[in-house]
Design goal:
With 217 residues, this protein is an alpha/beta fold. The protein folds into two domains: 100 residues, D-Maltodextrin-Binding Protein, domain 2 (3-Layer(aba) Sandwich), CATH 3.40.190.10; 104 residues, D-Maltodextrin-Binding Protein, domain 2 (3-Layer(aba) Sandwich). Helix 1 links the parallel strand 1 and strand 2.
């Protein structure tokens, strides 16, 4: 079973993938790969991956897309920042800062949403520092190079002296994370694996119910 996910995926999702056991497929092996959002979609469509976990995937009629989590953006900023004491932040709190962002190639939907929201709020566009990993972002914030805007799961477990994490409150900066697979994939193994992941990720939603999902039977 070939499954893709983004580099900022919540590690709890990855753990679920690795613990899935299917009685009808005792020799099941899960192999994971980490790619950018557009590459994940392309790889599923090209049958290079059986499925992928993607935040804000682009629409494609050839894909089955099932939302299973909400991914919020957060801000990593120095403790001494004037807005660090706020429980939740808005982009206006960061209007005078240098920004640290994932480049557009990582996830164009998230990247564009940040800039579009800034534009609506009259925040001037400035050249941002571009990073690939949350560790890089934390280091740049620690070095006072700016403030980082990241999907929240990427920051879990990371710590840096003098650095704090605050959620962004703008609803336009919250995104659905989805399981995607090809619509025409009628493999029993793939569909059972997908259903099992969703049951484990959303047990309260599916407890006592049939799995009513747009996946192949």
């Amino acid at each position: 079973m070939l499954v893709g996910h983004a580099h900022h995926a919540d590690q709890a999702w990855v753990s679920i993938l690795l613990t899935i056991r299917l009685p009808l497929f005792p020799k099941l092996k899960v192999r994971l790969t980490t790619l950018f959002a557009m590459e994940l979609v392309r790889s599923v469509l090209a049958n290079e991956l059986h499925m992928a976990l993607v935040t804000a995937p682009v629409s494609d009629a050839k894909l089955t897309v099932v939302s299973f989590a909400e991914t919020q953006l957060c801000v990593v900023l120095p403790e001494a920042h004037v807005a660090a004491h706020n429980e939740r932040l808005q982009l206006q709190h960061l209007a005078s800062d240098e920004w640290i962002l994932f480049p557009r190639s990582v996830n164009p939907v998230i990247h564009d949403s940040i800039l579009e929201t800034a534009g609506r709020e009259g925040i001037p566009t400035r050249q941002a520092h571009e990073i690939i990993t949350a560790q890089q972002a934390f280091h740049l914030v620690y070095e006072r190079a700016g403030v980082a805007i990241l999907p929240k799961p990427s920051t879990l477990g990371l710590r840096a002296e003098g650095v704090v994490i605050r959620p962004l409150s703008d609803p336009s900066l919250s995104f659905e994370t989805c399981l995607i697979m090809r619509c025409d994939d009628d493999s029993r193994l793939v569909n059972e694996f997908a259903r099992t992941f969703l049951r484990k990720q959303m047990p309260k939603l599916w407890r006592g119910r049939q799995m009513d999902l747009p996946l192949s039977a």
